[in-house]
Design a protein that fits this description.
The complex is a heterodimer. Chain A is built from 5 helices and 7 strands, in the order βαβββββααααβ. By secondary structure, chain A is α/β, with parallel strands linked by helices. The chains are: A alpha/beta, B alpha/beta.
Chain lengths: 182, 390
């Protein structure tokens, strides 16, 4: 089982993106589960959610404290202690940013880091910051727990072909920085 | 052929209700149940469900409207949470004591105050003496399946009582996962319509529920209590019949997980049961003989089955997502102890309270309960209530 914690801001489509991932897992005959964390969010306030993918049924219904993957939809969120908290040793960070990795305070235990300009892709295609489908394109590049085809089909089914294009652009442009061997 | 598809708990609830072909739905939206109401309204006004959807201005009206429709012979459905359930308490009580079958989903939520909209089971637990059958679900599949089973139980002539199908607010209502969505024809075959019952008919005017003096009132109550006990066998039979139709079953009144050779047993209610099963497996890897009993029905309370399942065990903890204000513990802990009667002093046991107001019942908390039981299992007696918080 892979546990993914998502951090974003209200209005960035964290919940809808997660539903797409679960649908893609189900379409591929495997197991997915997502629990949104509901606070007192308004548009722009920090939101997060808990996504699990597995080849066997997922029974636990809890929050995620030690994620294998962090998906950070907005790089301004890294100033909050909750963003990187509990990341597993060697865990991956996928982050929507135009910054260099040195500026992101990536925690020591992190493994590979995937940098993607999801905001730029969405602004170019939709004229506004809606990074969720681009973030899924980046996820497709770094995990094989859902197939790229299933994921992109679910994106197109939910939001149309333009969002499939956004995901593909992110898939092609995501910059994966491997953890240096010590 | 059933279709494997991803659904939230609320989506599973409204699809389950729709598959039972309700004649009338009346509901008022409240967090976290709202998308049940929105979903049913969408199906009816979208022409996909042939039913009457009545928009009401409160939960009191919702229950009153479905009560009238059910008294006229209709199959009816509603859903609510927390303060909405509190507001409908008056017709809610009358629904069960009129012995009219129906199904109501409760996406359970903490009761205020402090002000909250988040998860907790205090709402449904607090009305467990209002005469309804009440059951709690662990998974979204169970939500859909139990709404279908609930109509079969409610409408059984030996029972004739309304049923609450409860599931955790947010942790189930807003959790999305894959489930098998049955075909309409499969549900129709499992759940036939009853037209032999007496009902109100304008062509043959009659009064319902006249003032009833005490002696007669007592006969009604006695029969109501007897029906609640009769329901125990009906619940087990319905689960077996459901398995024959759909290939899935849940254990009836309770589900036992790895209890057979267990020394220490966790008792759980609702969605936390899945986390508890993971904790049991982890404890077994550490050499602890752990098991779990999922209390599925709280009314009728499965006293006999719980006592039997715990027979010969050394220690147990009951995890409640609600409190008993009078007993300084969780309500299901008190009822489990009552079910054990004179035997309860042979066990090491404690009440654990967690998950109030949306707090998480984590894997670590439940594994911690099992480890505490293991450490104390050879010293019988009741321990202090454990609060699952940092």
């Amino acid at each position: 089982m892979i546990e993914i914690r998502l951090h974003g801001r209200g209005g960035q489509g964290v919940v809808k993106a997660s539903h797409i991932v679960v649908r893609a897992a189900v379409a591929g005959g495997t197991y997915g589960q997502f629990i949104p964390f509901f606070g007192v969010e308004r548009k722009g306030s920090p939101v997060f959610g808990f996504l699990r993918l597995s080849h066997t049924p997922i029974r636990r219904k809890t929050q995620i404290y030690h994620p294998d993957i962090l998906m950070i939809f907005d790089d301004s969120l890294i100033s909050l202690p909750a963003a990187y908290e509990g990341l597993k040793e060697g865990g991956m960070v996928i982050i929507n940013t135009v910054k260099d990795i040195e500026e992101l305070n990536i925690p020591e235990q992190a493994g590979d880091v995937a940098l993607v300009n999801a905001t730029g892709i969405s602004e170019e295609l939709f004229g506004r910051n809606m990074p969720n489908t681009s973030m899924l394109g980046a996820l497709a590049k770094v995990t094989d727990l859902v197939s790229k085809e299933d994921l992109f089909n679910e994106i197109a089914a939910a939001f149309g072909e333009k969002n499939r294009t956004a995901a593909q652009k992110a898939y092609d442009s995501v910059k994966i920085i491997k953890k240096e061997a010590e | 052929m059933a279709k494997y598809t991803a659904m939230t708990g609320n989506t599973a609830a409204y699809n389950g209700a729709a598959l039972c072909r309700p004649d009338l739905i009346a509901a008022y939206p409240i967090t976290p149940q709202s998308s049940v109401v929105e979903g049913l309204a969408g199906l009816v006004y979208g022409g996909k469900l042939d039913s009457n959807f009545v928009q009401v201005e409160s939960e009191h009206s919702a229950m009153s409207v479905v009560q009238g429709a059910a008294a006229a012979g209709g199959r009816v459905f509603t859903a609510t949470s927390a303060q909405g359930l509190a507001l409908m308490y008056e017709p809610y009580f009358r629904m069960s004591t009129l012995r009219i079958p129906m199904v109501m989903a409760i996406a359970t939520r903490e009761m205020t105050s402090p002000e909250t909209i988040w998860s907790g089971q205090q709402d449904a637990m607090s009305v467990r003496e209002a005469g309804w059958i009440q059951m709690f679900c662990e998974s979204n599949q169970e939500i859909l399946d139990m709404i279908i089973q609930a109509y079969a139980i409610a409408e059984n002539k030996k029972v004739m009582l309304p049923v609450n199908v409860c599931y955790d607010g947010f942790y189930s209502s807003h959790l999305i996962e894959g489930i098998q969505l049955p075909e309409q024809a499969e549900v129709d075959a499992f759940l036939p319509r009853h037209d032999e019952y007496a009902y109100l008919d304008p062509a043959h005017p009659a009064a319902l529920d006249p003032l009833t003096p005490g002696e007669l009132m007592m006969k009604y109550r006695k029969k109501h209590l007897e029906a609640m006990q009769e329901a125990k066998a009906v619940i087990e039979e319905t689960d077996a019949a459901f398995a024959a139709h759909f290939g899935r079953n849940y254990g009836g009144l309770i589900e036992e997980y790895k209890t057979e050779d267990a020394d220490v047993v966790l008792l759980t209610v609702g969605g936390m049961s899945g986390t508890g099963k993971d904790a049991v497996d982890a404890a077994r890897e550490k050499g602890i003989k752990a098991g779990l009993i999922k209390i599925r029905f709280i009314r009728p309370f499965p006293a006999e089955r719980i006592a039997k399942a715990l027979a010969g065990k050394k220690a147990f903890a009951v995890v409640d997502r609600s409190v008993s204000f009078g007993w300084n513990c969780g309500p299901m802990y008190m009822e489990t102890k009552a079910a054990l009667a004179d035997a309860d002093e042979k066990y090491c046991s404690f009440s654990a309270i967690g998950g109030l107001g949306g707090a998480d019942i984590s894997f670590e908390y439940l594994l911690g309960c099992i480890e505490k039981l293991e450490a104390k299992k050879d010293q019988p007696g009741k321990r202090d209530t454990v609060w699952l918080m940092d």
